[in-house]
Amino acid sequence: MATHNQTKLKTVFKLLQSNRVITSSLLNNNGISRHLRKYYIESGWLEPLGRGAYKSPDDIVEWQGAVNAIQYQTNTKVHVGALSALTLHGYSHYFRLDKEVLQLFSPLKESLPKWFTDYDWNLDIFHKTTSFLPGGLAIKGSDIKGILINISTPERAILECLYLAPKNMDLVECYQVLEGLVNLKPKLVTKLLLACNSLKVRRLFLYMAEKANHQWFHFLKTDNVDLGKGDRMITKKGVYNAKYLISIPKELAVL
Fold this sequence. Notes:
Helix content: 25-40%
Distance between the termini: 72 Å
Number of helices: 11
């Protein structure tokens, strides 16, 4: 019995890598019962992060370890998107003075575990549930500080920024970010636009992409991209664009 318990403790130590969160689900799958978890906590070998999540004692865990745990140890579908994903790709150079925000996206009715939302990650968590794009399209694993995280590709991330605008993201900021996206893949962009069910996003993206005049813009296949009918007021007292039937901020129009 002692040898058996020692083997399980070795399993826990193996799972407790630096900057990693391990969940009850993972421990259960490895034969670590609730009783054993309680014993390991009392012995100082395991430290609870919240209900259902643990870390190595004295280890400083950052959000990457937590998001990895949510993505790969639970059934929660979530990915890093919008400006957060673009920042991780190295594309966002727009300087912000306020506290860093981690933008997470999930399918409708999906929720984040309480241990994650209650913990202080030294940044603000913004979680958006939406179906404006298919869940698995243009989302890929990326090595962030040695931890695998599912994040949006730049092509998807800029559409997510526009989806959040203008309420949760500034349209001028979105355009400034788009100006830096010089290497987008036109085939993937076209695929995303065809799959996107947000008329606002489709119109705004094509308006901004044409304005930025990147080389990839001229290779987009937009004949089947539905821009709908009727005007769309993106912002009050904005400048009207007749081609895309949208009213946009004056600050954006004059750029």
